[in-house]
Amino acid sequence: MAERIDIGDWEFSPDVAILKLGEDQKALENRAAAALELLCCRHGELVTHSEFVDVIWQGRSLSANSVAVVIADLRRALNDDARAPRYIETVSKRGYRIIAPLRFSDDKPDVSEQEQTQTRIFGFKRSWILIAVVFVVVCVSTIIVSAVRLNSTPNAGVVFVMVGAFENDTHDDQYAVLSPAMTELVATELMRHEHVRVATRSGASILVRGRIILWDGQVAVGLHAENIETGEEVWSGMAKGPESQLPLQVRQLFIVLADVVQDL
Hints:
Number of domains: 2
Distance between the termini: 32 Å
Protein backbone atom coordinates (compact mmCIF):
# COMPACT_ATOMS: atom_id res chain seq x y z
CA MET A 1 0.00 0.00 0.00
CA ALA A 2 1.20 3.53 -0.77
CA GLU A 3 2.72 5.75 1.92
CA ARG A 4 0.03 8.35 1.24
CA ILE A 5 -3.44 8.09 -0.26
CA ASP A 6 -5.48 11.10 -1.37
CA ILE A 7 -9.16 10.43 -0.66
CA GLY A 8 -11.05 13.28 -2.24
CA ASP A 9 -9.67 16.37 -0.47
CA TRP A 10 -8.15 14.37 2.39
CA GLU A 11 -4.62 12.97 2.65
CA PHE A 12 -4.41 9.60 4.43
CA SER A 13 -1.12 8.16 5.74
CA PRO A 14 -1.77 4.48 6.61
CA ASP A 15 1.54 3.87 8.39
CA VAL A 16 0.87 6.57 11.00
CA ALA A 17 -2.96 6.46 10.88
CA ILE A 18 -3.30 10.17 10.13
CA LEU A 19 -5.92 12.04 8.07
CA LYS A 20 -5.04 15.54 6.92
CA LEU A 21 -7.04 18.29 5.22
CA GLY A 22 -5.03 21.48 4.91
CA GLU A 23 -4.00 22.35 8.48
CA ASP A 24 -6.64 20.04 9.94
CA GLN A 25 -4.99 16.79 11.08
CA LYS A 26 -6.79 13.86 12.73
CA ALA A 27 -5.33 10.73 14.32
CA LEU A 28 -7.37 7.60 13.64
CA GLU A 29 -7.86 4.69 16.01
CA ASN A 30 -5.99 1.60 14.76
CA ARG A 31 -9.08 -0.29 13.60
CA ALA A 32 -10.52 2.78 11.87
CA ALA A 33 -7.22 3.30 10.02
CA ALA A 34 -7.13 -0.37 9.04
CA ALA A 35 -10.72 -0.23 7.77
CA LEU A 36 -9.97 2.86 5.69
CA GLU A 37 -6.86 1.24 4.26
CA LEU A 38 -8.84 -1.88 3.34
CA LEU A 39 -11.49 0.23 1.59
CA CYS A 40 -8.79 2.05 -0.37
CA CYS A 41 -7.09 -1.24 -1.30
CA ARG A 42 -10.30 -2.28 -3.03
CA HIS A 43 -10.42 0.85 -5.21
CA GLY A 44 -14.13 1.50 -4.77
CA GLU A 45 -15.22 -2.14 -4.80
CA LEU A 46 -17.56 -3.48 -2.11
CA VAL A 47 -15.96 -4.64 1.14
CA THR A 48 -18.36 -6.97 2.96
CA HIS A 49 -18.93 -7.13 6.70
CA SER A 50 -17.27 -10.56 6.84
CA GLU A 51 -14.17 -9.22 5.05
CA PHE A 52 -13.81 -6.45 7.63
CA VAL A 53 -14.06 -9.02 10.42
CA ASP A 54 -11.58 -11.42 8.78
CA VAL A 55 -8.95 -8.78 8.01
CA ILE A 56 -9.25 -6.37 10.94
CA TRP A 57 -10.37 -8.65 13.77
CA GLN A 58 -8.82 -11.85 12.34
CA GLY A 59 -12.17 -13.62 12.71
CA ARG A 60 -12.46 -12.99 16.46
CA SER A 61 -15.94 -12.83 17.98
CA LEU A 62 -17.32 -9.31 18.27
CA SER A 63 -20.58 -7.47 18.73
CA ALA A 64 -22.98 -7.22 15.80
CA ASN A 65 -22.41 -3.50 15.31
CA SER A 66 -18.60 -3.42 15.66
CA VAL A 67 -18.01 -2.80 11.96
CA ALA A 68 -20.69 -0.11 11.86
CA VAL A 69 -19.09 1.64 14.85
CA VAL A 70 -15.71 1.76 13.09
CA ILE A 71 -17.30 3.09 9.89
CA ALA A 72 -19.16 5.72 11.91
CA ASP A 73 -15.84 6.82 13.42
CA LEU A 74 -14.37 7.13 9.93
CA ARG A 75 -17.31 9.18 8.71
CA ARG A 76 -16.95 11.58 11.63
CA ALA A 77 -13.25 11.97 10.88
CA LEU A 78 -13.95 12.61 7.19
CA ASN A 79 -16.89 14.93 7.95
CA ASP A 80 -19.01 12.56 5.87
CA ASP A 81 -22.78 12.04 6.06
CA ALA A 82 -24.21 8.51 5.77
CA ARG A 83 -27.42 9.93 4.27
CA ALA A 84 -25.57 11.86 1.56
CA PRO A 85 -22.12 10.27 1.46
CA ARG A 86 -19.15 11.79 -0.34
CA TYR A 87 -16.54 9.30 0.88
CA ILE A 88 -17.98 6.04 2.25
CA GLU A 89 -21.16 4.54 0.87
CA THR A 90 -23.26 1.92 2.66
CA VAL A 91 -24.39 -1.02 0.56
CA SER A 92 -27.45 -2.19 2.46
CA LYS A 93 -26.99 -5.48 4.36
CA ARG A 94 -23.74 -6.15 2.49
CA GLY A 95 -20.96 -3.75 3.44
CA TYR A 96 -19.27 -0.51 2.42
CA ARG A 97 -17.20 1.03 -0.35
CA ILE A 98 -15.18 4.16 -1.06
CA ILE A 99 -16.88 6.47 -3.56
CA ALA A 100 -14.47 9.42 -3.41
CA PRO A 101 -11.70 9.63 -6.03
CA LEU A 102 -8.48 7.97 -4.90
CA ARG A 103 -4.92 8.87 -5.74
CA PHE A 104 -1.93 7.03 -4.37
CA SER A 105 1.40 8.54 -3.33
CA ASP A 106 3.60 10.48 -5.76
CA ASP A 107 0.59 11.12 -8.02
CA LYS A 108 0.77 7.60 -9.40
CA PRO A 109 -2.78 6.41 -10.04
CA ASP A 110 -2.05 2.71 -10.23
CA VAL A 111 -0.54 1.17 -7.12
CA SER A 112 0.32 -2.06 -8.94
CA GLU A 113 2.54 -0.10 -11.35
CA GLN A 114 4.40 1.39 -8.40
CA GLU A 115 5.00 -2.05 -6.93
CA GLN A 116 6.24 -3.36 -10.27
CA THR A 117 8.72 -0.48 -10.52
CA GLN A 118 10.03 -1.21 -7.03
CA THR A 119 10.48 -4.87 -7.95
CA ARG A 120 12.49 -4.04 -11.08
CA ILE A 121 14.75 -1.52 -9.30
CA PHE A 122 15.53 -3.43 -6.14
CA GLY A 123 15.29 -6.99 -7.45
CA PHE A 124 12.92 -8.35 -4.81
CA LYS A 125 10.62 -11.15 -5.83
CA ARG A 126 7.93 -9.78 -3.51
CA SER A 127 7.37 -6.01 -3.44
CA TRP A 128 6.04 -6.10 0.14
CA ILE A 129 9.50 -7.15 1.34
CA LEU A 130 10.70 -3.70 0.33
CA ILE A 131 7.87 -2.08 2.27
CA ALA A 132 8.88 -3.89 5.47
CA VAL A 133 12.60 -3.16 5.05
CA VAL A 134 12.11 0.56 4.36
CA PHE A 135 9.78 0.89 7.34
CA VAL A 136 12.33 -0.80 9.60
CA VAL A 137 15.18 1.45 8.42
CA VAL A 138 13.13 4.53 9.32
CA CYS A 139 12.05 3.19 12.74
CA VAL A 140 15.02 1.18 14.02
CA SER A 141 16.77 4.08 15.80
CA THR A 142 13.51 5.00 17.55
CA ILE A 143 13.03 1.39 18.64
CA ILE A 144 16.48 1.19 20.22
CA VAL A 145 16.15 4.46 22.14
CA SER A 146 12.58 3.74 23.28
CA ALA A 147 13.36 0.18 24.38
CA VAL A 148 16.24 1.34 26.56
CA ARG A 149 14.10 4.07 28.14
CA LEU A 150 11.07 1.84 28.76
CA ASN A 151 13.09 -1.03 30.21
CA SER A 152 14.56 1.29 32.82
CA THR A 153 11.25 2.89 33.87
CA PRO A 154 8.58 1.12 35.95
CA ASN A 155 5.15 1.20 34.30
CA ALA A 156 2.02 0.24 36.21
CA GLY A 157 -0.47 -1.75 34.17
CA VAL A 158 1.99 -2.30 31.31
CA VAL A 159 2.67 -5.72 29.74
CA PHE A 160 6.32 -6.30 28.80
CA VAL A 161 6.92 -8.36 25.68
CA MET A 162 10.07 -9.87 24.20
CA VAL A 163 10.15 -10.18 20.41
CA GLY A 164 12.11 -13.22 19.25
CA ALA A 165 13.84 -13.54 15.90
CA PHE A 166 11.65 -14.51 12.94
CA GLU A 167 12.56 -17.81 11.32
CA ASN A 168 12.81 -18.16 7.55
CA ASP A 169 11.14 -21.54 7.02
CA THR A 170 10.87 -21.07 3.24
CA HIS A 171 14.45 -22.37 2.87
CA ASP A 172 14.83 -19.74 0.15
CA ASP A 173 17.71 -17.26 0.63
CA GLN A 174 15.85 -14.46 -1.17
CA TYR A 175 13.56 -14.17 1.88
CA ALA A 176 16.42 -14.04 4.41
CA VAL A 177 16.25 -10.23 4.52
CA LEU A 178 12.62 -10.44 5.60
CA SER A 179 13.36 -12.25 8.89
CA PRO A 180 15.20 -9.41 10.71
CA ALA A 181 12.92 -6.84 9.07
CA MET A 182 9.79 -8.53 10.41
CA THR A 183 11.34 -8.92 13.87
CA GLU A 184 11.91 -5.17 14.12
CA LEU A 185 8.55 -4.40 12.55
CA VAL A 186 6.71 -6.46 15.19
CA ALA A 187 8.55 -4.57 17.94
CA THR A 188 7.70 -1.23 16.33
CA GLU A 189 4.00 -2.01 15.95
CA LEU A 190 3.69 -3.35 19.50
CA MET A 191 5.32 -0.23 20.93
CA ARG A 192 2.62 1.92 19.32
CA HIS A 193 0.16 0.56 21.90
CA GLU A 194 -0.03 2.41 25.21
CA HIS A 195 -0.04 -0.64 27.51
CA VAL A 196 2.51 -2.80 25.67
CA ARG A 197 6.28 -2.39 25.97
CA VAL A 198 9.15 -4.29 24.37
CA ALA A 199 11.70 -5.65 26.85
CA THR A 200 14.57 -8.10 27.24
CA ARG A 201 13.74 -11.66 28.31
CA SER A 202 14.55 -10.95 31.97
CA GLY A 203 11.90 -8.23 32.11
CA ALA A 204 9.25 -9.75 29.84
CA SER A 205 6.28 -11.98 30.59
CA ILE A 206 5.29 -12.72 26.97
CA LEU A 207 7.47 -13.96 24.11
CA VAL A 208 6.37 -13.22 20.54
CA ARG A 209 7.94 -15.13 17.65
CA GLY A 210 7.18 -15.53 13.98
CA ARG A 211 7.88 -17.60 10.89
CA ILE A 212 8.12 -16.83 7.18
CA ILE A 213 6.64 -19.79 5.31
CA LEU A 214 5.29 -20.83 1.94
CA TRP A 215 1.53 -21.44 1.95
CA ASP A 216 0.04 -22.90 -1.24
CA GLY A 217 3.12 -21.69 -3.09
CA GLN A 218 2.89 -18.12 -1.73
CA VAL A 219 4.78 -16.35 1.02
CA ALA A 220 2.87 -16.21 4.33
CA VAL A 221 3.66 -14.88 7.79
CA GLY A 222 2.80 -16.70 11.02
CA LEU A 223 2.93 -15.21 14.54
CA HIS A 224 2.48 -16.74 17.96
CA ALA A 225 2.78 -15.52 21.54
CA GLU A 226 3.60 -17.61 24.58
CA ASN A 227 3.78 -17.12 28.34
CA ILE A 228 7.51 -17.10 29.17
CA GLU A 229 7.00 -18.57 32.65
CA THR A 230 4.72 -21.48 31.69
CA GLY A 231 5.58 -21.92 28.00
CA GLU A 232 1.85 -21.92 27.21
CA GLU A 233 0.84 -20.55 23.80
CA VAL A 234 -1.62 -17.70 24.38
CA TRP A 235 -2.26 -16.61 20.78
CA SER A 236 -1.39 -17.42 17.19
CA GLY A 237 -2.28 -15.89 13.83
CA MET A 238 -1.33 -16.08 10.18
CA ALA A 239 -1.35 -13.76 7.18
CA LYS A 240 -1.96 -16.07 4.21
CA GLY A 241 -2.16 -13.58 1.35
CA PRO A 242 -2.81 -13.22 -1.53
CA GLU A 243 0.33 -11.19 -2.10
CA SER A 244 -1.54 -7.94 -2.80
CA GLN A 245 -3.24 -8.13 0.62
CA LEU A 246 -0.30 -9.46 2.64
CA PRO A 247 1.10 -6.14 3.96
CA LEU A 248 -2.33 -5.12 5.24
CA GLN A 249 -2.97 -8.55 6.76
CA VAL A 250 0.37 -8.49 8.60
CA ARG A 251 -0.42 -5.07 10.03
CA GLN A 252 -3.81 -6.31 11.25
CA LEU A 253 -2.13 -9.26 12.98
CA PHE A 254 -0.10 -6.74 14.97
CA ILE A 255 -3.28 -4.92 16.05
CA VAL A 256 -4.94 -8.14 17.22
CA LEU A 257 -1.74 -9.33 18.91
CA ALA A 258 -1.38 -6.09 20.88
CA ASP A 259 -5.01 -6.35 22.05
CA VAL A 260 -4.53 -9.98 23.15
CA VAL A 261 -1.28 -9.24 24.99
CA GLN A 262 -2.86 -6.26 26.75
CA ASP A 263 -5.72 -8.48 28.02
CA LEU A 264 -3.40 -11.09 29.53
